[in-house]
Amino acid sequence: MAKTWVKFLGNKTICNDFSLYLLDFWLVKSSQNIIGSVTCCPGCFSIYRGEALAGVVDAFSQPPQSAFQSLVMDHGEDRWLCTLLMRQGWRLAYSCSAKNSTHCPETVGEFLRRVALLRSNSNRAFLNIGGAIGF
């Protein structure tokens, strides 16, 4: 365990990635939860009601018909699922007491690819759900 923390603290890329998670989860998702609904529940850290998924499984399983849909549906599938759920009227909640873990990029290139993906998915998600949540 101690070796893991030494590796973590000694790697600026991992520290930077960790700080982005802190910002996203402790600030952004907490704020979204207060105003009504979280816009993206990260796939592996999420639990959904079967009843909610049953209402969107057909739309979620449709293949993309355009390049834009491919970006939205395949590269941001967790956001796409959340968008579909919110369009059906479900409220997505965030719990700060949940426990989770993830792989952190260890190289600058891997880190930059992840940041670019997260940012582009956030922008597309806002365009998709803006009307659904009143913007």
Automatic annotation (TrEMBL):
UniProt GO cellular component terms: cell periphery; membrane
BP GO terms, sorted: chitin biosynthetic process
EC code: 2.4.1.16
Keyword Chaperone: no
One GO MF term: chitin synthase activity
Keywords: Glycosyltransferase, Membrane, Transferase, Transmembrane, Transmembrane helix
Compartment(s) where it occurs, according to its Swiss-Prot or TrEMBL record: Membrane
Membrane protein topology class: Multi-pass membrane protein
Protein name: chitin synthase
The species this protein was found in: Elysia marginata
